[in-house]
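Summary of Year 1 activities. Much of the first year was spent building the evaluation harness for sequence design. The harness presents a backbone, in tokenized form, and records the residue chosen at every position. We chose the following record to illustrate the format because it has been used consistently in internal testing since the harness was completed.
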């Protein structure tokens, strides 16, 4: 085996294991700790590592979903924080926790990292909770929820001639059909488009509300090859942010995604797989254009966020699903994308490659 095709960083870092829970509409009988623990055990078992052998641990979640401050401290019971561990947390999707862990390994302060994220959306109204991320002076007082804002973006795409309702329905149908092979997906197989949620978005164009957990293990250099038969090397990773004010942005485009992709080296060579964090069917249209994805690229073969969208974990799942395809030889070069904020405000792009064969 030779190494990954390209390397632009001080250390070669790879995803060597990925695990996720079954994503469910409700998990009333489970606490966050009870949700997290089985997934952590599974991802560590895949590498043969014990918790004490992990150099750095980083998690992603949201206190707004949990409804209490410093909620992440409870799930550390699922990790095992004694003897003391090197640990950090981000108050957003686990994809950004992965970025922090990747930086930690790049500095040489760790050779391995455990990254996990989780979200329980079922206890409250996600559409209302997400209004809290809006501008507090001009937008938040109007209470536009996440679906209404996504519909605003979708209508802008329709008005610009970028898509139409039948094309959006086709995206939703393809995603749910692909999810039929994904045992963890919340929605699988044919799902009716249903009624309008906010025109032009129907129920099928929107993500399901549910609970779920994801975890990955990162490792550097030769250690990655010892832990995984075919590591998924992170040959590029970058994240960018756009203006907070929706009126300052062209909602039919995503320059932050394009810029992140350029800095991650996406355009240096073709990709065969793209796992896009597009919670709404219309957002796949925007992301395909920003990333320059052609029809030969398998987009969201896992079903994507339209099939399972656990808040704060769906972005990390995109990276994990792309890595898993490389692990099993179904992909050689893949791009994974994660987003946070309204209408694709913040975007992270990671390029993953398998050892050349």
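For this record, the design step produced the sequence shown next.
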């Amino acid at each position: 085996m030779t190494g990954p095709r390209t390397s632009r960083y001080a250390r070669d870092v790879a995803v060597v294991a990925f695990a996720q829970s079954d994503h469910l509409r409700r998990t009333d009988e489970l606490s966050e700790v009870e949700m997290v623990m089985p997934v952590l055990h599974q991802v560590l078992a895949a590498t043969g590592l014990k918790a004490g052998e992990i150099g750095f641990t980083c998690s992603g979640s949201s206190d707004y979903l949990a409804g209490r401050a410093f909620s992440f401290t409870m799930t550390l019971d699922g990790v095992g924080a004694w003897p003391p561990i090197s640990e950090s947390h981000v108050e957003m999707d686990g994809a950004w926790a992965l970025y922090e862990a990747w930086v930690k390994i790049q500095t040489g302060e760790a050779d391995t990292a455990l990254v996990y994220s989780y979200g329980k959306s079922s206890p409250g109204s996600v559409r209302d909770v997400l209004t809290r991320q809006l501008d507090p002076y001009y937008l938040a007082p109007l209470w536009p929820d996440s679906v209404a804002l996504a519909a605003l973006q979708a209508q802008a795409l329709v008005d610009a001639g970028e898509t139409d309702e039948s094309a959006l329905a086709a995206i939703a149908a393809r995603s749910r059909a692909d999810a039929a092979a994904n045992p963890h997906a919340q929605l699988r197989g044919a799902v009716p488009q249903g009624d309008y949620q906010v025109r032009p978005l129907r129920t099928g164009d929107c993500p399901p509300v549910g609970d779920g957990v994801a975890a990955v293990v990162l490792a550097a250099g030769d250690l990655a090859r010892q832990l995984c038969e075919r590591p998924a090397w992170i040959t590029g990773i970058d994240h960018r942010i756009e203006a907070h004010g929706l009126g300052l942005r062209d909602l039919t485009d995503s320059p932050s995604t394009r810029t992140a992709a350029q800095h991650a080296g996406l355009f240096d060579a073709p990709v065969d797989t793209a796992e896009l964090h597009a919670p709404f069917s219309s957002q796949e249209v925007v992301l395909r254009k920003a990333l320059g994805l052609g029809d030969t690229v398998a987009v969201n073969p896992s079903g994507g966020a339209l099939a399972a969208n656990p808040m704060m974990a769906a972005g990390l799942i995109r990276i994990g699903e792309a890595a898993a395809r490389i692990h099993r030889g179904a992909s050689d070069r893949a791009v994974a994308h994660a987003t946070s904020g309204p209408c694709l405000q913040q975007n992270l792009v990671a390029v993953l490659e398998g050892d050349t064969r």
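The mean pLDDT is 94. Quantitative recovery figures across the full test set are reported in Table 2.
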